[in-house]
Specification:
Layout (H helix, E strand, L loop, with lengths): L18 E4 L5 H10 L7 H7 L2 E7 L6 E10 L2 H5 L11 E8 L8 H13 L1 E7 L3 H6 L3 E4 L4 E7 L5
Parallel strand pairs: 4-5
Antiparallel strand pairs: 1-2, 2-3, 3-4, 5-7, 6-7
Length: 163
């Protein structure tokens, strides 16, 4: 994961105090609140945290020592979730974005982008199914997008190998 600070999205030269790491059991309540606050349903969230399939973006706590999650990405890594095909018929390695959310007051700061990039670094390939309202987010991150049924979309992106 990234333990480094990230550049300010406004290109002011300032460094932010945001970091991406794998979620742990002490993050479970805050992660659950972030997911619930975005009206997303992840039934087995604690098991996914235990399995290492949840990454968080953290920022310093304003009034006490330590860091707290301000964004989360939940990944599904079984072949059927990654390919959209029958289990056991993997198209290629990678993970499916089951959920991604950022605290409302921290949106537009590049946190979602950082979470996607960290997941790509780890998995090599990501897929996601999403509504039209978040299509611009995935387009900006260079996902290849195709329509599904009921106005939803499917996107995929593979980490480019350095030349």
């Amino acid at each position: 994961m990234t333990g480094e600070d990230h550049a300010d999205p406004n290109h002011s030269g300032r460094r932010t105090q945001r970091r991406i790491r794998q979620a742990n059991v002490t993050d479970a309540l805050v992660v659950r609140r972030l997911v619930d606050g975005a009206m997303l349903e992840i039934a087995d969230l604690e098991a996914r945290i235990d399995a290492g399939d949840v990454l968080v973006s953290t920022a310093p706590r304003p009034t006490e020592p330590g860091r707290r999650p301000v964004g989360v990405i939940v990944l599904e890594t079984s072949p059927s979730h990654v390919t959209g095909e029958a289990e056991g018929v993997p198209e290629s390695p990678g993970a499916h974005v089951a959920a991604i959310t950022v605290q409302r007051r921290r949106r537009g700061q590049g946190i979602g982008r950082d979470l996607i990039e960290a997941a790509l670094d780890r998995e090599g390939r990501l897929t996601a199914n999403f509504d039209a309202s978040v299509r611009p987010f995935y387009e900006a991150l260079a996902f290849e997008i195709e329509p599904l049924t009921d106005g939803r979309f499917r996107g995929a992106r593979t980490r480019e190998e350095p030349s």
